[in-house]
C-alpha cells in the first residue's frame, strides 16, 4: 500500500504513471468519461437543456429587445464577466488543482476539454448568428450554444462535485452572472446560454461519474499466488 501524504509531491507526480501520453489521455481520461456520460443524471441534464433551449428560444427576441432598453448590468460589469468566463478562469483553476489536488484537477480538466470540443462542434453545426450579427471570434456564426456559459458551468459544477456546496454555491453564482452578462450586452440569445449551461453541466457530471465509478488508481487488486506447499494464496493491494 502506497500513501502519498505530501500535497506537493502528489501534485508533481506524473499522472500517466509512465504510460504513453495519448493512449493514457484516451484510455484513462476521455474514454471512461464518455462511457459514464449517459446515466440517468446525464440524460436528465441533456433533456433539461434541450427543453430549456426550445422554450427560451420562443422569447429570444423579446429578451434581446428588453436588454436594448434596459440591460441587466452596465457594460463594464458585463465585459468583466465576459473576460472571466472566456475560459482563462476555468483553465487557471484546473492548472492550480493539478499541482495541489491532482485527482480533482484531472476531473475538472476533462470536463473543460470535452465541453470545449462539444461547444465548437455544436456551434459549427447550428451556425447560429449572434444578436445584431455581431462578429464571431471562431470565424463562423457560433452563437448557439454559448461557450462562456458552457465553460463557466463546467468549472462551477466540477468544483461543486469536488469540494461541496460551500465552493459550489459561489462558483455557480458566478457562472449565472457570466450568463446574465452575455445576455445583458446582447452577445448571446437567452436560449444560447441555457444550452451552454447544459453542455457544461453534462460534462462535469460525466467526468465526476468516471472518477467515482472507474477509480483506476484506488481499486483493490487481487492476485493469486501459488504456494510452495501446493494450492493458491491470494494477495490484495490498493494504491491510495
Structural description of this entry:
This protein has 240 residues and is mainly α. It has 10 helices and 2 strands; from the N terminus they run ααααααααααββ. It has helices spanning 7-12, 21-35, 40-57, 60-69, 75-84, 88-100, 102-126, 147-163, 165-184, 190-213, and strands at 221-226, 232-237. A two-stranded antiparallel ribbon has the order 1-2. A hairpin with a 5-residue loop joins strand 1 and strand 2. Helix 7 packs antiparallel against helix 10 and helix 8 (147-163) runs antiparallel to helix 9 (165-184). The longest helix is centred in the middle third of the chain and has 25 residues, at 102-126. It is elongated.
Amino acid at each position: 500500500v502506497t500513501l502519498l501524504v505530501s500535497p506537493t509531491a502528489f501534485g508533481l507526480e506524473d499522472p500517466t504513471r509512465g504510460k504513453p501520453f495519448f493512449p493514457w489521455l484516451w484510455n484513462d481520461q476521455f474514454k471512461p468519461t464518455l462511457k459514464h456520460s449517459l446515466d440517468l443524471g446525464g440524460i436528465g441534464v441533456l433533456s433539461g437543456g434541450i427543453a430549456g433551449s426550445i422554450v427560451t428560444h420562443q422569447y429570444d427576441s423579446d429578451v434581446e429587445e428588453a436588454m436594448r432598453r434596459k440591460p441587466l448590468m452596465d457594460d463594464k460589469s458585463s465585459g468583466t464577466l465576459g473576460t472571466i468566463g472566456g475560459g482563462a478562469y476555468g483553465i487557471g483553476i484546473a492548472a492550480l488543482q493539478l499541482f495541489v489536488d491532482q485527482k480533482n484537477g484531472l476531473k475538472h480538466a476533462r470536463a473543460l476539454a470535452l465541453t470545449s470540443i462539444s461547444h465548437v462542434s455544436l456551434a459549427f453545426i447550428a451556425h447560429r448568428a449572434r444578436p445584431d450579427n455581431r462578429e464571431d471570434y471562431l470565424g463562423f456564426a457560433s452563437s448557439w450554444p454559448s461557450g462562456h456559459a458552457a465553460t463557466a458551468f463546467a468549472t462551477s459544477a466540477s468544483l461543486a462535485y469536488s469540494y461541496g456546496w460551500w465552493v459550489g454555491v459561489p462558483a455557480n453564482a458566478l457562472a449565472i452572472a457570466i450568463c446574465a452578462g452575455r445576455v445583458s450586452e446582447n452577445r448571446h440569445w437567452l436560449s444560447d446560454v441555457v444550452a451552454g449551461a447544459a453542455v457544461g453541466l453534462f460534462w462535469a457530471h460525466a467526468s465526476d461519474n468516471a472518477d467515482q465509478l472507474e477509480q483506476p488508481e484506488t481499486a483493490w487488486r487481487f492476485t493469486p499466488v501459488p504456494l510452495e506447499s501446493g494450492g493458491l494464496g491470494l494477495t490484495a493491494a490498493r494504491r491510495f
